[in-house]
Description:
globular; 7 helices
Amino acid sequence: MELVKDELKIKIFDTRERMGRVAAADVAFCVKKLLTQKRCINMIFAAAPSQNDFLEALIDDKTIEWERINAFHMDEYIGLGPDDPQGFGNFLKERIFDKVPFKSIFYINGQSDNLQEECERYAELLDSYPVDIVCLGIGENGHIAFNDPHVAHFNDSERVKIVSLDEKCRVQQVHDGCFSTLDRVPMSAFTLTIPALIAAEYMFCMVPSKTKNIAVFNTINGPISESCPASILRKKENAILYLDSDSSELLNKSVN
């Protein structure tokens, strides 16, 4: 099923596996189209279990010229060890960054001794490599990247910033199986801001799972507001939201 709300295209599938395959095919098509126009392109990836089906399908496409793509990630915990598997750079390293031959991979350093300098360093990289494609998800509280409602600003003056994580966001990390208990989830993180993400020419948002159904409903049917940061996708041209039967179950099928 396909719907449209404002500028946002919405594709709904029976299973998360099918969702991931179609999203990967759409992203691959977009990559190949852009590479007919540019020598290299720049992509930002989300690190979350919700992205697994999409990432697995994407790296199975042997026709993508990965050596012409520079890769970024969109957020990172502060305070984890360099080898901790919960680190978002490590998550993406295991699932895609080490599996295909990117031209360059730019990691956010969650162990930096100077957090503000790390924000500035990564922001400068984004300035040097303007983003073409963002592949993202939506959090249980409606966040995109780590822009939780209490720190989200649609007109943020920063491109990368340090944020505190709200409890719902931290509980989600336990729901996702990334941490065994809430007290193990870091309290703060680096995040690319909403303007840094929306600057992309194309955005592909993959959101499976019943735990996301309220956030999906609010994204599509609620106001466009920082109270549900993902709602900004409805103002973005060339944005597609991919859902499975679980994440879409609360939607009014008359969305148009």
